Queue: 4 jobs
Job 1
Amino acid sequence: MGGEDRVLVQRRQDPCQRGLSRVTNASVPLAAAAPIGVFDSGVGGLSVLRHIRAQLPHEHLLYFADSGFAPYGDKPESVVAERSLAVAGFLIANGAKALVVACNTATVAAIKVLRAHYPDMPIVGVEPGLKPAAAATRNGKVGVLATSVTIAGAKFLLLRDQISAATGAQFLLQGCPGLVDRIELGDLGSPAIGALLERYAVPLLDQGADTLVLGCTHYPFVLASLGEVIARTTAREIVLIDTGDAVARQLGRLLAAAGLLHAGDGAAGTPATPAVQGFTSASAAALSGAFANLLGIDAPVREVVI
């Protein structure tokens, strides 16, 4: 697939202002200079965006924080899949050449249907890092911190069973209700977050886990608090697995294979569009603050209805 290839996307008039309700099929060219669309139920996907910016510095990025519909983790898979299709359609209508589903829950619920809808488009999902965790564990016990929807998903459970059978690793699953909500509030070192992390991580450590998988893209933003909980609980060395780096590498491979890697605008050139553009279904001020506080960047943000 080269820059001249075309895919069918869902488009409606003025999607930035009014979202996607009535849609029609339209043919949109994919070009290397087009942006990558990244979405999550909130600000957690910024942990993935951080890795994409580091590894693919010439790429322009669209980030959609669906905070008005968050959290995804307490909703049925069918609802998350429908919502993911709507958000993906919005990003594609705004020119995205590729999609990153920067949410474990949405990946479990929607990655297959997204790829079925857009078979010619590079689409990367986020999955809990069970395989690298199985390689990293020394005693064979791996704790998985994730949303309840993620750990109950058939795709996730199949992956767990396959890796467990191949490696002998034992995966201890822990749903974390309420943790995403607290992280979305932005006070990452709050006592409330510390209490939730203690409630969810300590039982895994008590069962002997020497490796913990951060099975939600929100969780890397509370590594400091999690480290404090681990230090209070055990003197053992605990390995933490964050898959954002692997997602960025896979995205780079897919773009290169499709001839869609952006080579840059030239030393003297300036991008025609902002390097990062944010959209949110909730508060623009909140997402702007998250860009500044979590990534240290000042990105334009628009509130939209989808």
Job 2
Amino acid sequence: MSTDKRKAPNDDAYISSSNQLVKRQKSVPRDAGSAIAISSSTSSSGALIKAVPRTSALQAPIMELTGHSGEVFVVRFDPTGEHIASGSFDRTVLLWNTYGDCINYGEISGHKGAILDLQWSRDGRSIYTATTDSLVAGWDVETGQRIRRHIGHEDIVNAIDVSRKGLEIILSGSDDGTIGIWDPRAKEAVDYLETAFPITSVAIGDSGVEIFSGGIENEIKVWDLRKKTVVNNLRGHTDTVTSLSVSPDGQSLLSNSMDSTVRVWDIRPFATSNRLLKVFEGALFGLEKNLVRASWSPKGDKIAAGGGDRTVSVWDSDSKKLLYKLPGHKGTVNDVRFMPGSEPIIVSASSDRNLLLGELGK
């Protein structure tokens, strides 16, 4: 498998089978520097037209990460933001450094089906994967060895989430219509919640009591884990719900759907009955019908979503203003994530088999 890393073309829109892994290098201070845009349309030698302030310590304003041999369905930063994991149709998870040359320092392999979703453990030492081979699995990041196979689902596992507080638990949603609740230390599920439709998205509230699921019935179910029952239904989407994500402050839920809308819902315990807060439009879904995902920025002030139009849409979460429409991919953008921390860095994964890592403007 080729793992060439190269700088992507400077685009002004972005600016404003081995299980052995190489051990991570220690982080060193980096100088953000500045980017210079050069035009060669009127001169063979090029003309200096402006200096664009850099906003991050990335080696270049945009980095293209290549190495997967199939569609890339999911991408996640680790808790520190220093490393990236991407999962693909090629049945592998590739591990990348965020800074420097964005080296592909490791590969996790062993699944017999495509990697549809993944999450890092809270300590960054493990990765949990959801795949088309009906498994949820845990992997040791340093060695690439599988820690545990969580067996129990009877069909494709589309989505997983990991609790952010309290005891670390894994939540999974499958085409078999069940939501699996897993202790990473145990092979068998702690419990299952059953529905009548395939589950395409899941999320865990910060209380650890409420969980959220979305599926092909176009609505979001709110579950009480103590009662194992649905306590609310969030309705408004008109097509399959493809992703769910709880806001950094734990008070809102972000949903993306094949109806080409991204929505924010109020999930506070005593909110009004009409919990729909905002609708974001502009991220066209396209014809592939992949489980395209949306995400929050670390402060919750921005929202991003991939699209079938090969772009990444970024909105201001308060005003709903479309801030960026980021080009560069040659296929559907299936996932997009903001880097944890203060640097305005975003990474996207696409059906064109590549990742784009870039900085946003101030």
Job 3
Amino acid sequence: MGRAECSCRGAERLASPCLVRRFLPLLVLIIALCYGAHIGQCQVVTPQCRIQKCTTDFVSLTSHLTSAVDGFHTEFCKALRTYSACTQRTAKSCRGNLVFHSAVLGISDLMSQRNCSRDGPTSSTHTEVHPEPCNYHSRTQHTNTYSHLHTHSHAHSHSRPAYLFCGLFGDPHLRTFKDSFQTCKVEGAWPLIDNDYLSVQVTNVPVVPGSSATATNKITIIFKPYEGCTDQRVYQAVTDNLPAAFDDGTVSSGDPIHTFAGADGATGKVRALWISERTPGRHVELHAGYIGVTVIVRQLGHYLTLAVRIPEELAQAYDATQDLQLCLNGCPSRERIDQAGYLPLPRSPPALGLQLQQLRRPSYSSQTQESPYGAMQIFGVEGAKQRCRETLEVQDIYFHSCVFDLLTTGDANFTVAAYSAQKDMESLHPHRDRWRIYPRGSATSALHSDPHSIRRFALLLLCVLSMALM
């Protein structure tokens, strides 16, 4: 009798409480997988809700305003009233949209804070935009806005240009534009980037005799001339010489073109190309606003690290003679130390014992502070992992690179290099969902590195459930 109540037919069977109870864990798992993998089929889409357009218009109307500009209060209130009117027009279709309700509350709070009246003049959302020709973001935003207004095509307009990231650190470890992570030898001078706008070349030297691992001791960056914005500028950094100026002694190039607002409300202008020294002799950033490029150069220990963000369209501007670019195509196969993403850990640091013996000799005693091997220690696998765990919380590829570097060189400075490279990546990489890369073969890799497999697994579960309910 206890099982009779589960005997259901037709449509009644689909609503059977026993089946619901039986498959509830499976349903919960599917929902969780859909949420975690961002599966489009599992999302409720409400294309009629135009709250994003309202928000974009508000940002466009206020992005140029600062508290130091005359009439700031009046213009900001006009923009708020325009924002409010836009939300009212789309209120019906956005009734169940959390973003919409958050925007409505935010508008109310801002009006109260700024003492803006509900009634009054509004801003025009079709004001003519005058681009700054030496500001890449302004230039491309104007082009896309013009395309959208005149073609009425969403397919040909994007609010923000697409950016790519490339990084190099350690022995050396390369993260390409395609988020491929490689460990390479590449001894000598190699081009990372070489296109019509920018050239970046690195020079790598052996770290420890007896090992194929190398590290970067020289970086050369050439910003090519751009008519009306800047002449050619060359920046060169070598170990123990990380200048805060270009080779000609200048720290910027081009006319002041871009207005910015500081934290204190003061306004100012930056040039088309400029250098910012964050830590003297250790951390320099180069900003090329006219092409939307940011470059971070650091010295950690005795070697250099590099991180670059560049618009995709500019990174693709090269000819057949410029195809050897490590950031674009990765390292040649003969220069790879890793095996298709798998980084084998050395059983013991090659020639490290020999180096330590040399350091103990009397002839080395007066050179200990200058020797690149002065920071060497002997690390076992567990000791290296423990040292890297002290700095790197997530055991992704940066953690495994840290362990590899400690085992290979015994130089504890590479721990800080891996940490800084990870932080520079997080500050420049445009896609947060691609930040984490896990080494091939690790347990975490199967879960994080291939979201498509998660989606296929979730869809398979859906199919199994459908068949069970039939």
Job 4
Amino acid sequence: MTINSSCCSCNSGQQRWAKSNEPRSATAPFRIDMHTHIMPPNLPDFSKLYGSTEENGEGWMTLRSHYVSTGGVSDLTGAELNKVDMYVGEKFFRTVEPNCFDPVVRMKEMDATGVDVQVISTVPILFSYDKPIEPAAALARYLNDHIASVCRDNPQRFVGLATVPLQDVSSSVAELRRAKSELGLKGVEIGTEINGCSLDDPKFDLFWAACEELDMPIFVHPLGYELERENKSRWGNYWSAWLIGMPSETALSIHTILSSGVLVRHPKLRFCFAHAGGAYLPLLGRIQHGYDCRPDLVAHRSEGVSPQNYLESHQHNIWIDSLVHDPDLLQLICKKIGPNRIVMGSDYPFPLGEMPNPGEMLSSDAKVGELFSSETRARMLAGNAIEFLGLGDMYQEHKI
């Protein structure tokens, strides 16, 4: 595969727009951000509705107005008023800005940074896989109704992904069908593991079959916060759970799916993995070697298809987003999976993502401009996401 397959556009002012303080050219490339998160401005108090005692000691997520200290006195004041504090039970989790829950703020930031469309999915800690199924299913319905309402109110700017309570497969299939038929959501976001259960578990076959039947592509996102719960001393320092743990989680989830024959049994599935597939593609040579030298350990459930086979240029099952923060790594993953299977993803609005200018590396980085043609970058900025999500009817003029 030759990456720079046609004349690059690194010297073209029409294609290099990215800075938020510059007016956008009418010919600037169309951008669909596949990896963004949103939450409602408020949540029901599930601890009151369903009880607060949890087997694992973790409470329900609640949202509280952000308090700031003024002259030594805590108060709700000024510019901080619209921020929200997220709590798990009584434990503080993080403070989020209005762009995490206010569509108007989001659209202003999208306009300022050249993002035409966001694919919105819930904040992963709200998956609530560790909760009892009745309230978890109720929360999934609440979150999906919210995402659908944002998309319905702003159909040209937002495309929605559902969440489902995968600790119970039958409930998940029911919610998936509702999300597709009633809410018009275009795919589903899931975690890299479900309450300690890997994605290769046969019990998920019914869910994979439903995703195939309904043509619902799957966005897989890691759950770094769980690593600190399991072993604080190992993962708590240096932001290790997020910087090292998350890429490892994602690699493990890809490894289990590709090694277990899931895609042989369900060949129409489309998976997109966050954060460029984590550590999987840089480890592909090692994994393939393990498959070859110890098939008794690696290949016993593969049904004859190797990891390398799944990533050949014609494959249509595995996609990744572009969130690598490194042009050299982008070049490597393009060589491994092909540029037609990479979608723009920023992890907006969180600071570990490509912030404050989503898509900046693909659209304006000088090295990326030397490596990839304008057509290839346009595919990664929007065309590939249109294909992955099946949005050709909505964005016909931007298909490539």
